[in-house]
Amino acid sequence: MTKLSSFLGGLLVLSAPVSVAQNPTTQSQIDCNWLTVDTTAKTATFQLTAGLTQLNGGLNFNGFNDGKLTLTVPTNWTVVLRFANHDANLPHSAEVVDTTKPMPAGPVEPPAFPRAMTVRLMQGLASGEADSVRFVANKPGSYMIFCAVPGHGLAGMWIRLKVSPTEKRPTLVNSST
Ligand SMILES: [Cu+2]
What residues are paired with 92 via a beta bridge? Predict the structure, then answer.
C-alpha cells in the first residue's frame, strides 16, 4: 500500500507539467524550408499550407493568421505559391489581393496580379489537395494572401505579401507585433 501510494503520488507530480504542455501558448515558428530563393531566375518559391496547425480552427496559413506572417519579394520577381490544404476538416483556397478594408467576404475579381490565385477560389480545395500558382510581382505595394472561401478571410485566414522596390532578396518573417 505504501508503495502504491508513493507510486500514485509520483504520477500526480509528473502529471502537472504534462497538463501544462498540453495547452501551449507558444508562437508559431517559421520553417526555413518554406521559402526557396533562386537569385538567378529571380524566383521565390513559397510552400503555402492551409490549415497547417489547429490554430484558429484550422483557418491559418502555415500556422499563422491575421497577417502575422509576411512574405517580402523584390519588385518584378516571379512568385511561385505551392499551395496545399493540410486541414482535415475544411476546404481552402488562396488569392493575392490588395490590402483593403473591410476584408473581402469571398473571391475578388481580378486578383492583384494576373493568375495570383488557386483554382476553385470559392469552394476551395479539399483536404490533401494542392495547386501551384505562378505570377510576376510587378507592382510594389502591400498585399495579402487570403483564403477566398466565403468567410475565411473575415475569420482571419490571411497573411501578408510585400512587394518591395528596395529589398534585394525575398524574406519570410513573423509580423505578429
Ligand atoms: Cu479557408
Answer: 125
